[in-house]
Design brief:
The chain is an alpha/beta fold. It has a seven-stranded mixed beta sheet with strand order 5-4-3-6-7-9-8, with helices on both faces. The protein has a two-stranded antiparallel ribbon with strand order 1-2. Helix 2 links the parallel strand 3 and strand 4.
Amino acid sequence: MSHYYTNDDTPHAYQRITHNFRGKNYVFKTDRGVFSKDAVDYGSNVLIETVLDTVDEPSDFIDMGSGYGAISVILADQFKTKPLMVDVNRDAMDVSLENLDMNQVTGTVMEREAYDSMDVKADLYITNPPFRVGKKIVMEILSDGFNRLNEDGSFYMVVQKKQGMPSYKKELERLFGNVEIARKDKGYYILKAVKENEI
């Protein structure tokens, strides 16, 4: 698995943002170089809403490309479960650990290299992929999601049509044998696939 390192040595630019989700305020520390550092992005919010509305409470989940942890923190708090948050940006990993604590959520933050060396499985796999690093990496994330899911586990991703939604939808159909558009909202598509029992 190739990696997309975005670590740098420029001065930190920490800030705190607040995101209200269904009447509850979540506080996040962000830093320069992390995705959507000034506010939780619209696509992530749609992804969170869709997962909560369509998934029975999972025993655990993987958040691939977790950034500063907004998706994991909110889902873990709402589901009352523990996320495994995976990223390659060390600054994002550092602030995500603080964000778990600030929001009184328990989770594990893991660097991608360590994650790749472990046999980790989950009932739910979610991702807001790093599209800027190219299609090859995103396709690898889709494949990883299929391989990491338990039987009957669900894969969710958020993608815009201009980011290649049709091709990712086709790839999920190839991998899982099924795919659906679970939600469409202001140009954001939530794709869902289920790992069915292999006969």
